Amino acid sequence: MWELAMRLRSAGKHEEALKQFEKITVENPQDADVQYYAATNDVLGREKEAVPYYEKAIALGYDEVDAYIGLGSTYRVLHRYEDARKILEQGYEQFPDNFALPPFLAMTYYNLQEHEKATTLLLQCYVKASLDNDVQAFSRAINYYATHLND
User: Fold this and answer.
1) Which residues does the UniProt record annotate as the domain Tetratrico peptide repeat group (predicted)?
2) What pLDDT score was predicted for residue 45?
């Protein structure tokens, strides 16, 4: 059943895959991977239904950045900004070198009216992720002003 669900998911047949993953979660409620993949609900616009699967996956030890981004982004879409902040900050602390997570955290800071914090995070991530020689030439200045935006 797992192989079928993964094939359906890979083929973009999310509705069918979700049905399979939900069946598997009943049979394997303590499997973190199964819980994570059952969160396919959010791809279908069913964010509310995805939340318990993401939460359980993380609680059971699913330790991949995708779960933190998925849950944080889902919370954000549901206007649960403080929950989004908490989970995305946890993810950022755990995966500081992942460049996909900071934009989601910055958007959450924006929603919480923490514009300076959002800008600082994005600027620091930009410098860290950029391979561009011109950006790197100014990296010290950008990093300084990222934390001194009003100077």
Assistant:
1) 38-149
2) 86
